[in-house]
Fold this protein.
Amino acid sequence: MIDRRAWLVLKKRRMNEPACWNDLRLAWNLKDLAWNGLVPESAGPNKSIVVAKNQTRRLRPALLKMDKDTLAAIKKFTDFAPADDTCTLVKLEAASTAIGTAQDTEAQKKADAAGAHDDAIATEWAFHNLILVAKKQVVAQYGENSNQVQAVGLKKKTEYKAPTRKPKTPPAA
């Protein structure tokens, strides 16, 4: 077993590799690391370390297609019997079906959100237009120089600067 400092050095070395290498190595098999004496003490037998840095990001469509192609190839194997029960053919197919269901649900919810967004915009514009009409009604009812006009955010007519004529400049000769 190695100490934590040596494990962090190994981890840092792995993070400095190009991204394409990380895509090719999605998990390190701890049996291989144990053979080299590089297994952290906290890791139990038959466990793997996931190399993916951020599992909250979407996978690239090309990577998903490769995964689906891999599943299609595994389906053709008549004698596929993994030692790890977490990746049986039934569980792989269920995970693939779950992806389709989740993506369909996401598309439906995005459409619902877009519809709700459009409804909110329409309601905001209807409210704004009613307020503009109400401001005109305040001016009509109370007059252009009233305090009520100023209270609704408009200027009184007397607050505007009176227009002045610009003096004519003689044409240049």
Remarks:
- The CA atoms of residues 117 and 123 lie 10 Å apart.
